[in-house]
């Protein structure tokens, strides 16, 4: 098999179910499905900040009644992803810069627990498990597949939580870090951080495999802290995207 075919095969492999954030599709109500779909599109910037979310358009798109659409929009508003202005309409919210440092602090605290636990786990396959995700991420970067790169990035952190025996922490963080994720979707293509992220992941991986809890924690802390200066630069480039 050629290198190109190997790369395509690697990117096509599905990620384990525990890495996918959200409820099980087979049990979703209409409101859940609309919420999950719009949430993913907002985080991926397929629906950028300021995009109007017209009820009529959503009714036609999802072929549902008003109730599930309104329920989904309420949940998105609670997450801070949608703003409702009574006299103007409903819009995708701008990324609140002031919320990001606090979210980073929460993420550092909780992922500090998972990375230390992973380093202390003694799992003989932990290196292989992390290498598989890093390889997928590297191939995605080389092919310019930023969506798949982000998916693999999520999988790397989820894998660490699973190795450490705390997969529930990652599911909790998915809600906490939603504004960070929106900023990162700009950071990757604009600031060219893909190679830096992979290098940082390898440092974390190596510390975990050595069983060095202190080094693993320090590497994770440095890695997660990089988002704050990135956001400061992005705000200057995309003032309309940030609040």
From TrEMBL:
Domain HTH gntR-type residues, every copy: 28-95
Keywords from the UniProt entry: DNA-binding, Transcription, Transcription regulation
PROSITE patterns: HTH_GNTR
Superkingdom of origin organism: Bacteria
UniProt keyword Cytoplasm present: no
Any Pfam family the entry gives: GntR
GO molecular function, one term: DNA binding
SMART domains the record matches: FCD (SM00895), HTH_GNTR (SM00345)
Coiled coil: none
PANTHER family tied to this protein: GNTR FAMILY REGULATORY PROTEIN, TRANSCRIPTIONAL REGULATOR, GNTR FAMILY
Protein known as: DNA-binding GntR family transcriptional regulator
């Amino acid at each position: 098999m050629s290198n190109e075919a190997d790369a395509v095969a690697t990117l096509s492999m599905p990620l384990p179910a525990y890495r996918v954030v959200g409820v099980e599709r087979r049990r979703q109500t209409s409101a859940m499905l609309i919420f999950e779909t719009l949430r993913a599109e907002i985080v991926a910037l397929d629906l950028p900040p300021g995009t109007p979310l017209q009820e009529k358009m959503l009714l036609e798109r999802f072929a549902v009644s008003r109730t599930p659409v309104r329920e989904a929009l309420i949940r998105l508003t609670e997450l801070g992803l949608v703003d409702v202005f009574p006299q103007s309409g409903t819009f995708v919210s701008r990324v609140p810069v002031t919320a990001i440092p606090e979210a980073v602090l929460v993420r550092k605290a909780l992922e500090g627990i998972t990375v230390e636990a992973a380093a202390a786990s003694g799992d003989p396959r932990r290196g292989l498990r992390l290498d598989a995700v890093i390889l997928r991420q590297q191939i995605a970067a080389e092919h310019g597949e930023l969506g798949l790169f982000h998916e693999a990035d999520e999988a790397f952190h989820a894998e660490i939580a699973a190795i450490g025996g705390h997969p529930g922490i990652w599911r909790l963080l998915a809600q906490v870090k939603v504004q960070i994720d929106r900023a990162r979707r700009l950071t990757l293509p604009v600031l060219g951080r893909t190679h830096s992220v992979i290098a940082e992941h390898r440092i974390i991986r190596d510390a975990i495999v050595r069983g060095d809890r202190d080094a693993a924690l320090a590497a994770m802390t440095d890695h997660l802290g990089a988002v704050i200066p990135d956001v400061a630069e992005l705000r200057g480039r995309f003032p309309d995207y940030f609040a």
